[in-house]
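Most newcomers find our protein records easier to grasp once they have seen one. Sequence and backbone structure share a record, each on its own labelled line. To make this concrete, we reproduce a full record directly below:
***
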Amino acid sequence: MKYAKALAIVVVIALVYLTRPIWHPLFMLVYTNPAIAESIIIAYLVSAIFCYFYKPPYVFVLGEKTKRVKKIDETERKNRGKSRLLPSPVIFIMAFFLIVFVLLPLQSLYTSLYLSHHLHYQHISELPEVNPSVVRIVPKVVGDKYAMDALQFPRYQIDRGAIVFVNGTPYWGYGLIPDGLVNMFVLKDKGAIYVDMSAFGKRTKIVEKEMSVGEGMYITDNYLWRIYSRKYTVDCEKPYFVPRNTSLYIAVPLIGYQLHFRFPTFYTTPYWAGTALIASNGSITILSPSQAERCPILRGQKLFPAELARQYVDSFNYAHGILNVIFYHKDQFEIADVPGQNNQQPFLVATKQGLKWIIACEPYGQSYGIYRIYVVDARTGSILVYQPPSTKALIGPVRAVDYVKQAMPKVDWQTMRAVEPIPVVVNGTLYWQVRVIPSDASGIAYVAMVNAENPNDVIVLRSCAGVKVFLEKGEGFNITSISFSKVNEKEVAYYLLIKKNGIVVRKIPVYANESVEVMPASS
């Protein structure tokens, strides 16, 4: 009997080990929140000690309908005193919830506090200029729509999508994954759909390649099963499909954790643990951060996890301590997310200094100006911070969307919406590049450039060529800037457009009581 129990334990341990990817979420819940395990241990000790030293003369006995009290005689009391040290379930549960209620918030605060004191960043006086050769026009929600419209394979669906660079051009990349429970067991990933981000219209291409290991497949063919079988103590960020020559790869950023202690609890801090690169034949290569940077397949791609970049930036709120975050709010900020957006910060921006995660922050409270802009290198994770002079009074992305709506009063904003205000710097000037799209995300109406320092001037661009010229020179657009204080569209009879090389470079409003006359310069 003794050997049978031992054998059963060994079998159970072996089964748990072999199926360990299934238990990964539960394991990581405890691993990344050591306060839970700490609370279990402390609660066990408290309840066991309580039961050992406290031997009540009465116990409650559950009857059919009511509780009744049964007196313990002296013999039973002695037997209880000689019994093994066992915890009371009621005391254990009460102690656990009381302790975890205290330790879990402290653990979260300690994580942010540690990051704010140990992350290195550098102050910069100017933001990096946008790379005009990399034009980003299509927002995520429109890319999703274009990809779904291009889907022509029964039994397949698209995944969540991510930015991928193909020959230097940005694309929204969507994996073709099985659709339906049965298909997830019997089908393989079929490849990926790519939506060109640099075009106003729908421009897609499909790369067909069967993936032996990938996303949306069950059970052991799933990429998470394969990665967690090899590297268990990490979390995986959203994967993205990288085409190279005739091959297709899946890149998965990995997030690891370091354990720390500060009275009275343990806590963990996240870090970039590298990238898992999955080939179409199912082979997986776990790359360290330095190896990922040198990997030719990942050349020109983002590497540093976006979620980690956002968490790092948010942790700087704790630079002056926990009490400051709770009470005083000195130098505290809020990440300036626009409500109701499909794609939130950080935004990936191609600059002349490389790919950057850009995170704009507003001052704490009811304010919509720019307090700081954090620039996180999308390949190395190095952090830069730009804090504009207060005299500049730069507006943030939330107000930029409002100015776009104000610039176009004739637009029906019940059927249109402004999305993805991405920061770009042109000739030293910060602009918010806002896309205006139909509510059903069926296309792109135009791109509005809002000057962060002088938001009354909104530049509207209706072509890829116009956007590219503007990013190169800061001028050359299809509709010139409209100043709210000078132009009342309701009173304008028509506009006089001045073109240069086919591009409208100036727009002059003509009112009902005005006329136009053209004369030679020599006169």
Q: What stands out?
A: Residues 274 and 290 are 8 Å apart (CA to CA). The chain has 13 helices and 25 strands. The two ends are 115 Å apart (CA to CA). The longest strand covers residues 247-262.
